[in-house]
Write a structure and sequence with these properties.
Shape: globular
Keywords: Membrane
Oligomer: single chain
Protein name: Protein Aster-A
Main location: membrane
Number of helices: 5
Number of domains: 1
Subcellular location: Membrane
Organism: Saguinus oedipus
Distance between the termini: 15 Å
Number of strands: 8
CATH class: Alpha Beta
């Protein structure tokens, strides 16, 4: 998820316009929160106040033909959807610990897996440890936030950084929900300029490719 080679943004944008996801069909991007009586701008602000967006890049902002609870299950439970998605990304040696915590609205789990790397100058694969933390708002609130911290091991400058992602799920109606995903690169210590450039290039390449498959 951190390193890899991706195609140009123009080709991706064209693919997104022409492609309909076979497992979860996205709605027209022109639809907005005001279309649905069950959510308002105040509701959107409430979710942002609950846990604000990260300062990085917005990679997904789409509406799907499933309810908020079902969308959360598809993305964060060991269901065929998630298994198929990880296989599509060519992740191997996948292990998922069960969710645990003091309440259903605050739980954590750890995932480990191996990712392929398409960088000719580096390793061909790398081990990943991903920690996910769920912040639920309850069934009536119609949404949840999942924070993910991803540490990739066995790559250049692995001690300098990790990637962070925030999944915001907001229920719009009984069978419709919006998913927003923000990502950012966080540094444990500041690398020199050339190293930082390589980290940024390879990390964003892998991150964008990962979420391209998801969307």
């Amino acid at each position: 998820m951190v390193m890899g080679v991706t195609s140009s943004k123009q080709r991706r944008e064209k693919e997104r316009e022409m492609r309909t996801t076979p497992r979860v069909a996205a709605l027209n991007s022109k639809e907005n929160f005001e279309t649905w009586p069950t959510v308002t701008k105040a509701g959107t602000a409430d979710l942002a106040a609950f846990l604000p967006d990260l300062s990085g890049r917005l990679l997904i902002n789409s509406v799907f033909h499933v309810g908020a609870e079902r969308l959360q299950q598809m993305l964060f439970s060991d269901l065929p959807f998630l298994q198929g998605f990880l296989q599509q990304c060519k992740f191997t040696d996948v292990t998922l610990s069960p969710w645990s915590g003091d309440s259903k609205c605050h739980q954590r789990r750890v995932l480990t897996y191996t990712i392929p790397i398409s960088n000719p100058l580096g390793p061909k694969s790398a081990s990943v440890v991903e920690t996910q933390t769920l912040f639920g708002r309850g069934p009536q609130a119609g949404g949840s936030v999942v924070d993910s911290e991803v540490l990739t091991q066995g790559i250049p400058y692995q001690d300098y950084f990790y990637t962070a992602h925030r999944y915001c799920i907001l229920g719009l109606a009984r069978n419709k929900a919006r998913l927003r995903v923000y990502s950012e690169i966080r540094y444990r210590k500041q690398p020199w300029s050339l190293a930082k450039s390589l980290i940024e290039k390879n990390s964003w390449s892998g991150i964008e490719d990962y979420f391209h498959h998801l969307e």
